[in-house]
């Protein structure tokens, strides 16, 4: 019942960029696209362990909060592969030192989170969109969060930025709908990744977190990847501007 299930998509000849693809959800997304024969470009600030990333995944070092690096990375992808079919904006941080009420949150932590989680999504999108417009085809998928939809203690920066990731998707969806570009977002519940393991250490209590999800457990990265695979495929051709909660019922629970 709790096993990896996968619909097969054919992403042959498709070029997909996954930011933060070196770990957690991003790594799961890289693996899923690679299994579906896509050309996958993993963009990350940290080179992942070479045993984790499938052989056919191409790694580019890039700090998504930096315009110059985003622009040159996208240029390299276009020069080498000639097209960009999908961008998965996923690189994000929720550092342990961000769990404070906002009046106690250090400004440098605020700036880092805005820089990566918000500006990073914007910069990668603005750099791939000209190519997608030229192709008259493309999908951008922003990984948001359940915390975009409801509050929790001491996530006063992370939550609002994640809500902004959903609105970025809606805004871009409307802006580029006539140009063959679809933009969507996915709001995962708690997923078993290094980020969540770190935040559990900061907050304590894995069982309580699992129980908050009506299904009684946290999710797996492949369960998020499956949603992304569908949303980026032609099977979702009439879906744009939508946010999909992939959260074991957390959102329904309130
Ligand atoms: P993770 O920490 O496992 O992976 C994040 C990756 O992003 C890492 O490989 C890291 O090196 C990379 N990264 C960080 N800063 C970067 C930068 N400046 N430029 C390029 N890459 C950078 O995290 P995760 O849990 O897989 O989270 C991925 C995304 O999913 C984030 O946007 C997060 O907010 C979102 N999310 C996660 C959960 C969850 O439960 N894990 C739930 C909801 C949403």
TrEMBL record:
Please state the Enzyme Commission number of this protein. Answer: 1.1.1.163
Does the UniProt entry include the keyword Oxidoreductase? yes
Superkingdom assignment: Bacteria
Q: Which GO terms describe its molecular function?
A: cyclopentanol dehydrogenase activity
Judged by the first EC level, this protein's enzyme class is oxidoreductase
Q: Which UniProt keywords apply?
A: Oxidoreductase
What family is this protein classified in? Belongs to the short-chain dehydrogenases/reductases (SDR) family.
- The molecule here is called Cyclopentanol dehydrogenase
Q: Which organism is it from?
A: Stieleria bergensis
């Amino acid at each position: 019942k709790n096993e990896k299930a996968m619909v097969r998509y054919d992403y042959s000849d498709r070029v997909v960029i996954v930011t933060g693809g070196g770990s957690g959800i991003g790594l799961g997304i890289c693996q899923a696209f690679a299994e579906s024969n896509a050309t996958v470009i993993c963009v990350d600030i940290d080179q992942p362990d070479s045993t984790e990333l499938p052989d056919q995944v191409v790694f580019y070092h890039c700090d998504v909060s930096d315009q110059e690096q985003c622009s040159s990375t996208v240029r390299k992808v276009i020069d080498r592969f000639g097209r960009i079919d999908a961008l998965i904006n996923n690189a994000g941080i929720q550092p342990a030192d961000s769990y404070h009420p906002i009046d106690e949150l250090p400004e440098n932590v605020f700036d880092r989170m805005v820089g990566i989680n918000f500006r990073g999504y914007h910069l990668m999108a603005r750099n791939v969109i000209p190519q997608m417009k030229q192709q008259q085809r493309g999908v951008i998928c922003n990984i948001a969060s359940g915390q975009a939809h409801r509050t929790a203690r001491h996530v006063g920066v992370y939550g609002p930025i994640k809500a902004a990731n959903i609105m970025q998707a809606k805004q871009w969806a409307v802006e580029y709908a006539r140009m063959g570009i679809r933009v969507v977002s996915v709001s995962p519940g708690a997923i078993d990744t290094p980020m969540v393991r770190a935040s559990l250490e900061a907050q304590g209590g894995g069982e309580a977190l699992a129980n908050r999800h009506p299904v009684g457990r946290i999710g797996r990265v492949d369960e998020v990847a499956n949603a992304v695979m569908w949303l980026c495929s032609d099977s979702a051709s009439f879906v744009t501007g939508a946010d999909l909660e992939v959260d074991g019922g957390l959102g329904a629970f309130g």
